[in-house]
Amino acid sequence: MASNNYYDPADLRKFGEITEWSEELGTKFFDYYGKVFEEGALTAREKALIALAVAHTEQCPYCIDAYTKDTLQRGVTKEQMMEAIHVGAAIKSGATLVHGTMMMNKVNKLEM
Amino acid sequence: MAKLKQQSLQKRDAELANAKRQVEILSNGIFANGELPTFAKKIKEINKLPLRPKKLEILQINVGYMCNQVCEHCHVDAGPDRKEIMTWETMELALEVIKNTGAHTLDLTGGAPEMNPHFRRFVEEASKAGIKDFIVRSNLTIIRANKKYHDLPEFFKKHNVHVVSSMPHWTKGKTDKQRGEGVFDMSITALQQLNAIGYGMPDSGLRLDLVYNPNGAYLPGDQASMEKEFKHALMEDFGIQFHNLFAITNLPIARFLDYLIASENYEDYMYQLVEAYNPAAVENVMCTNTISISWDGYLFDCDFNQMLKLPVASKVKHLKDYNEDLLNDRNIVISQHCYGCTAGAGSSCQGTVTE
Ligand code: SF4
Ligand code: SF4
Q1: Pick among 3.30.460.80, 3.10.450.50, 3.20.20.70, 3.40.50.720: CATH of B15-38+50-269
Q2: Amino acid A112: pLDDT
Q3: Does residue B337's CB lie within 6 angstroms of at least one atom of ligand 2?
Q4: SS3 for A40?
Q5: A62 DSSP 8-state letter
Q6: What is the pLDDT of residue B50?
Q7: Which candidate in A17, A52, A74 is best for mutational testing of the B interface (most B CBs within 10 A)?
Q8: In angstroms, rounded to a whole number, what is the distance separating the alpha carbons of residues A92 and B180?
Q9: For position A88, which CATH number holds?
Q10: CB-side exposure of B83: number of CA atoms within 13 Å?
Q11: Best residue for ligand 2 mutational test, from B287, B336, B352, B354 (most atoms within 8 Å of Cβ)
């Protein structure tokens, strides 16, 4: 059943099957996962938007597929979805740039 | 996303205007090769095959396929070009049935039911029958479409009609994309008009419910949280109030099926429906308490089967032979579109079917 691609959309549907090769851990994971996304101090909708942003920073095609659909189902507009991704992108680029201070510290220490 | 079409499938002579072809598509492919289980197989697992009706509660009458809109997802394939309209003679047969039925709810649908030339006379007569809940499914824009419809809210109020209206989203962009340019603004005006005479107000007996259905190849979100969003946004932006929101799943038939196939979403959508299959929803699918009557007086298990031209499996096939006891003793005709009624919390014309 090998496909010619590393990523196959059909594999997303098989996600649940990971439990078959390690039942206890798989089950624990899915219980945890399900619980995380339940309505809590944050609404399920807020959680879905966070997941969408993180799906992009993690660049996971499966998660992007799943949470694009999930946020649409929750009535999120495409403007809101794009803004959430910008939040992820801003943190990603900010996280890169803020390390620039490390570089600056090092330069300042090394240079006479 | 395909562009909004201005004509019905029928008018365009499209392949899917043919109901037989639709049923074929729903039975072939991924369901014929065993990739996905058929609906029959699925409900057999829980001893629900054959699917049988319970007590009849709702008579849903489709008074015609003509509509002022041509929504892309329409399972009726309705539009201004559809000429199937219930005649007064058929309405008289329907009135006889309404007077004698054990059902507590009468539900008029279309198309835009208001476009039937006998609509008002029919409502006047039917409202005398003492049915507890008298629903008209109004698409809202019809109220603004033409001067002669502007007074519909007052007419509804006079006959204590329960108005159920579709509103695909609380934003203009999403609404207009599904239902056509300008639909959002017209719907807002119509809702304000209904609110102004008491419809949808918190303690009002004049019921105003909204129907939400997704704007593409995905399932509706949780009904209660969608209702919260709708209420908040419509109140905040327009001061509009309503009672309940029904979240309805798009069934893969007619224009929605056409869209699914054209956008290459059909298989994924069927997978979604089958994966979201909820055995608990089977108990209360719409056909277990509803009879659907077509514009020409024929009887169906639901409005969807009506559009697929799958008549009731009963000796009683038409209003003129109507016999409720005999009719209720039948097996419901099912196919793969039925998965749309059992996905997630389930879906019916009254919204979800499970707690
Ligand atoms: S979905 Fe309703 S309003 Fe839209 S075309 Fe069909 S019948 Fe008319
Ligand atoms: S599509 Fe009609 S027949 Fe099938 S489950 Fe739904 S209501 Fe019943």
Answers
A1: 3.20.20.70
A2: 84
A3: yes
A4: coil
A5: H
A6: 97
A7: A74
A8: 39
A9: 1.20.1290.10
A10: 2
A11: B287
Of A39, A73, A77, the CB nearest to B214: A73
Q: Which residues of chain A have a CB within 8 Å of the CB of B221?
A: 45, 73-75
Q: How many domains does chain A have?
A: 1
> In chain B, what are the domain boundaries?
15-38+50-269
Structure tokens at A84: 């959430």
In a domain, residue A3? The reply is no
Q: Least CA distance to B233: which residue of chain A?
A: A75
Is the CB of B65 inside 8 Å of chain A's CB atoms? no
- Plot region of B131 (φ>0 → left; ψ -120 to 50 → alpha; else → beta): beta
Contact B169 A72 (CB under 8 A): no
Distance (Å, rounded) from C-alpha B309 to C-alpha B39? 18
* Mean pLDDT (chain B, rounded): 95
B88 at interface of A, judged by CB pairs closer than 8 A: no
User: Are B219 and A77 a contacting pair at CB < 8 A?
Assistant: no
Residue B347 near residue B117, CB atoms below 8 Å: no
| Residues B47, B49: Cα–Cα separation, whole Å | 6
Q: Examine the pLDDT at B4 and tell me if it is beyond 80.
A: no
| Contact flag A73-B169 (C-beta cutoff 8 Å) | no
Q: What is the pLDDT of residues B18-32, one digit of tens each?
A: 999 999 999 999 999
The Cβ of residue B312 has, within 10 Å, a number of other Cβ atoms equal to: 23
Of the pLDDT bands very low, low, confident and very high (cuts 50, 70, 90), residue B1 is very low
Q: Kind and range of the H or E element at B138?
A: strand B133-138
Determine the pLDDT at residue B5: 57
- Who's near A83: CB < 8 A, 6+ residues apart? none
Nearest alpha carbon, ligand 2 atom 4: B338
Tokens of B310: 């799958």
| pLDDT at residue B3, as a whole number | 45
Note whether B82 and B66 are within 8 A (CB). Answer: yes
Q: Is A50 helix (H, G, I), strand (E, B) or coil?
A: helix
Which ligand 1 atom is nearest residue B139's CA?
A: 3
C-alpha of residue B237 to centroid of ligand 1, in Å: 25
Q: What is the domain extent for residue A105?
A: 22-110
Amino acid code (one letter) for B277: Y
